[in-house]
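Dig into what follows:
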Amino acid sequence: MSIVKINVLTVPEEQRETLEKRFAARAGTVDSSDGFEWFELLRPVEGTDSYLVYTRWRAEEDFHNWMSGRGQAAHREGAAAGERPKPAATDSTLWTFEVVQQATPKQG
């Protein structure tokens, strides 16, 4: 079964728009990666300042291959004159899960 990576980003309210714009600017950078299955950026509605970056991969190795190549490049993009922009998140935690059961909508 697949592997899920959830990056929990603590984002102050004044940085939310910046974070979302940065993700929008990088849209499509992961889509064609070998083993990539799904991506979602989840915005908090109430009670937390944590965004969730949900990615799903065929295998752990696929995620690591992306992180060591295209993932690193995507995080460097947008830097002007060799300077990296200030991070929008103040903290980050990566969670890993194995998919042990899933359901999809029934057709019909």
